[in-house]
Every structure is written in C-alpha cells, then in structure tokens.
Write a structure and sequence with these properties.
The protein has 3 domains: about 190 residues, Methylglyoxal synthase-like domain (Rossmann fold), CATH 3.40.50; about 120 residues, AICAR transformylase, duplication domain (Cytidine Deaminase, domain 2); about 120 residues, Cytidine Deaminase, domain 2, CATH 3.40.140. Helices cover about 40% and strands about 20% of the residues. The strands form 5 sheets. It has a 6-stranded mixed sheet. Strands 16-21-20-19-17-18 form a 6-stranded mixed sheet. The longest helix has 30 residues. Helix 4 runs parallel beside helix 8, helix 13 runs parallel beside helix 15 and helix 18 packs parallel to helix 19. The relative contact order is 0.06. By secondary structure, it is an alpha/beta fold. The radius of gyration is 30 Å and the shape is elongated.
C-alpha cells in the first residue's frame, strides 16, 4: 500500500482529495487540524506522532522534522542502499506529499503582533515540500488545491509521468520560494524601510501574451496578490503586451478622481484625451476632442459603466481597447461588429486599482526599486498660492485635473485643462518649454481654445519662458511643484500676466 502525507493550512477540498486517495489504495498520514478534519469525515488516517514515534512538541513548532518523515520521503527507490537503510530503521515510504503553508500573508494583513507573526512562519511545511520536490521521481508533491483533481486523474489513469511529476516539482519550488520571499520582504518592510540587502519581486503567471513588445520577444502577464485573477475580466479579444502597458497608464489616470465619470484615451502609453463630465458619453465626447488623430487605434479607459449609447458613439472610429468598470451586455453586442476591438472590465461600478506600494524598473544588469509615487489627497488643496491673483473654483478644479494627469504622464510634461477636459498635452520631452510649446501647437492645429485653461507641470518650471508662452495662449492658472532657483522670476512672470500660480511642493517625475 502506498502512503500519502497530508498537512494543509488551506483545507479546501482536502476531504474529497483524501477520500479519492484512499479509493486509489493510499494510506493517509496526517497532522493536527488536517488529521482531525479527515477523521471527522470518516476517513481512516494515521496521526503523525505514530509515524515519528515522538510527540508533537514546543506548541507545534516541531512535529514533522523527523527522519521517519523525511527518510520516508527522500529515499531513492532505485538505489538498493537507500532501500536497505530505510528497511533497517523501520522507515515506511511516503509516496505523495500534500502540503500548503501557514497563512503568513493573512496573518500580516490581520495583525501587527510580532509574536503572532513569528508563530505563523512555517518550518516543517517548507521542509517537507522541498524534500518531496527533490525526490519528485518517486514522490508526488502537491501544493495547490486546484491540482487535486488532476493528480487523482493522473493516478487513476496511470499518467503520473516524469513530465507530470516534474511540473509539480517546479510548482512546489515556486511555492516555497514565493513563501520565503514574502517573509523576507515583510521583515525588510518592518525593520529596513523596505530596502533590504536583497529585494524579491514575486508575481504569479496570469497568461502568456502572443509576444512581447515585438513579435520576436516572448511575453507574459504576472500578478501580485491575485489582482488580475480577481478583477480583470476579458470580454472580447486578447490583451497584448503593449495593450497591458497602455491600459495601465489609462486606468490610473481615469481612476485618479474617485467616483467621477472620467474618461482617459491613451496612445503608446501617453494620454491624448481626458475629460470629466456628469456622464461617460459626454466625458468621452470631450476627451476625444483633444486629439482625435492620436486617439485612432487607442486605448480608452472609462471610470464607470459603458452602455449601448456610449458604445454606439465609440464605434464611430477604430479603437483597439476599451476598458471600464463594467460594459453592459447591450454595449458588448454593439461592439461585436468591430472585429479588432478588445473589451475588458473590472466587474465593478468603477475601475479597480491595486494601489501597489512599491515600484521598480529594469535597467541593464539589475533593477531600481522605490516607493510607489502617489498624489496626496490634499496635495492640490494644500498647494501654496504664490501669486497676487487667486484662481476661481472652476480654475482650481481644472488645475487639480491637470496636476493629476501630469503626475501620471511621462516627463517632461505639461497639461492644459479647461472646464474639466484636457485641451492640450506635451509629454516625454527633453525640454519643459518644448513640451509647453508642442502642446499649444497641437491645440492650435486641433482648433482648441486654451484661453482660460489651467496649466500643470509635474516638476518646476526652470525659467519664466513657459509662463510667458502660457500667458500668451490665455492660460489663467498654473500649478507646479516649485523649487527652482528662479522661482522668483516665475512668480514675477505670473504676476505680470495676472495669472494665479500655485506651488504644491511635491515633484512627480515619471521617467
């Protein structure tokens, strides 16, 4: 008879799995709560201390760290010396190990009590997983509750091949590596401000993309904390590597204004349209006016629900991606006529963001790692008025929109907003004055009137020339971080032109 060792924190479907193993000729060995669970279900099981010939001690800290356990897992069935050794010592082979680990993530989410957190660091579990994974040719290692059915099917159909066992082995080492990484990262967050000697970035694969940025590159989407699995729903088409980058930029901007009905249009990672209105149809219509040429083939993020009327309007031009809180069935039917359009939703009334607290970027030979940038809730409201003229309520509202969009757009960047809609944007420029001028030139080409608009920059204006250019275009309000050696010149320029100028004191570079 074969023997299976079951020791799980997540007891989902463990009774059914144990029952199926017994049906297939396995004897069950189990620990603590798992033993109680299977026994209460009427399944015969051997308690771990009967195998170890030693009681569980130190409040459960030591129960499976024992040669009767690890010898039974690790001995090679193809080596006579190993078989003779286990026989000599009365060690019974263990042919399947099913383990998932103490819920460390749930513990640190629930409490700051360090003693409790320490007690929820699993020791015996990872040891058994690693032992079984090392000896995968002889032992099946199961760490994922979603694998129970396919493991039983493989056993019943005699399909537990080398390749099948190898895949389970890889998954097991991924499981323990992710677990240890989570603990190390937590300890560094708690004691080293998140910047430890080693930084672990662990994501779980959601899907392969057809390719990366270009067809000769492989690509895939990985997630933190099951974010995409829980929230991101594909309704039509398949998200490409580039789509996912554009979606990221679009949804962050569209969702930066709470529950407001905001629409952001992005092309190649940059916003080319943005507006807030009482309804999404009007917001989309206004957002499109900023740069309908660039919007062609773009990504549109909508912070709310897309209905049939809005879908009909959006169908008037080619869009590559539409992503929203929800897209109604009627809207999906209208979009179905567009063969190349891809549809995604969050299954919520609004866009759902993960609010990651850390950010990183690959550079040649490594990566740079930092706290994620975020715009404080009162950052604009608390901005300091440094000019003689004060902005009106509408101008302050437009300034806040411009400021948030600028903070989420590639530097160097300037954004012009008028009556809740972006009317000009210059981004990714090597010179801030060039960004301002290019934005105004594009607005002029589009026939957009920027007079009365608010201008925001994600970093300080180093010279007064951008203020002069903005004043010539009719801008009435400017918001920027301040901090230039020539702030006095910039302030003087604003006063000369009768403009309202605010300094937020916070820079938002996005490189």
């Amino acid at each position: 008879m074969k023997r299976a060792l079951l020791s799980v924190s997540d007891k989902s479907n463990i009774v059914e799995f144990a029952s199926a193993l017994v049906r297939n000729g396995f004897e069950i060995v189990s620990t603590g709560g798992t033993y109680t669970t299977v026994c209460n279900a009427g399944i015969a099981a051997i308690e771990m201390n009967e195998v170890t010939q030693f009681p569980e001690i130190l409040d459960g800290r030591v129960k499976t760290l024992n040669p009767y356990v690890h010898g039974g897992i690790l001995y090679r069935r193809d080596l006579q010396t190993h078989c003779d050794t286990v026989s000599e010592h009365g060690i019974v082979g263990i042919d399947l190990v099913c383990v998932n680990l103490y819920p460390f993530q749930a513990t640190i989410a629930r409490t700051e009590d360090f003693d409790e957190i320490i007690e929820n660091i699993d020791i015996g579990g990872p040891a058994m997983v690693r032992s079984a994974a090392k000896n995968f040719q002889d032992v099946l290692i199961v760490t994922d509750t979603d694998d129970y059915d396919r493991v039983i099917q493989a056993i019943e159909n005699r399909q537990d091949s080398f390749e099948f066992r190898r895949d389970l082995m890889i998954k097991a080492y991924e499981h323990t590596a992710a677990y240890d990484s989570m603990i190390a990262n937590y300890m560094n967050r708690r004691f080293n401000e998140g910047m430890g000697k080693t930084q672990f970035i662990v994501g779980h694969k959601v899907m392969d993309t057809r390719y990366g940025e270009n067809p000769h590159q492989k690509g895939a989407l990985y997630e933190f904390d099951n974010f995409f699995s829980r929230h991101f729903k594909t309704l039509k088409g398949e998200a490409s590597f580039n789509n996912l980058g554009d979606i990221n930029g679009a949804v962050k901007i569209a969702a930066a204004f709470g529950d407001s009905r905001a629409v952001c249009i992005v092309k190649h990672g940059n916003p080319c349209g943005f507006a807030i209105r009482d309804n999404l149809l009007d917001a989309y219509t206004e957002a499109l006016k900023c740069d309908p040429v660039s919007a062609f083939g773009g990504v549109v993020a909508l912070n709310g629900t897309v209905d049939a009327a809005l879908a009909a309007k959006m169908n008037e031009m080619f869009l590559e991606v539409v992503i929203a809180g929800r897209i109604t069935t009627e809207a999906q039917e209208i979009f179905a006529t567009k063969k190349r359009l891809k549809l995604f939703e969050y299954g919520s009334d609004h866009i759902v963001l993960s609010h990651d607290t850390k950010d990183f970027k690959h550079i040649d030979g490594g990566f740079v790692f930092q706290d994620a940038d975020c715009i404080g809730e009162q950052e604009v409201a608390n901005a300091t008025l440094v000019s003689h003229h004060r902005a009106s309520d509408q101008e302050r509202s437009d300034a806040e929109i411009a400021y948030k969009v600028a903070a989420l757009t590639k530097s160097n960047c300037v954004v012009y907003v008028k009556e809740g809609a972006m009317v000009a944007v210059g981004m990714g420029m090597t010179s801030r004055v060039d960004a301002a001028r290019c934005a105004l030139k594009k607005a002029e080409e589009m026939g957009l009137d920027v007079s009365g608009s608010a201008l925001a920059s994600e970093a300080f204006f180093p010279f007064r020339d951008s203020i002069d250019a903005a004043a010539a275009a009719g801008v009435t309000t400017v918001i920027e971080p301040g901090g230039s050696m020539r702030d006095d010149e910039v302030i003087a320029a604003a006063n000369e032109h009768g403009m309202a100028l605010y300094f937020s004191g916070v820079r938002h570079f996005l490189h």
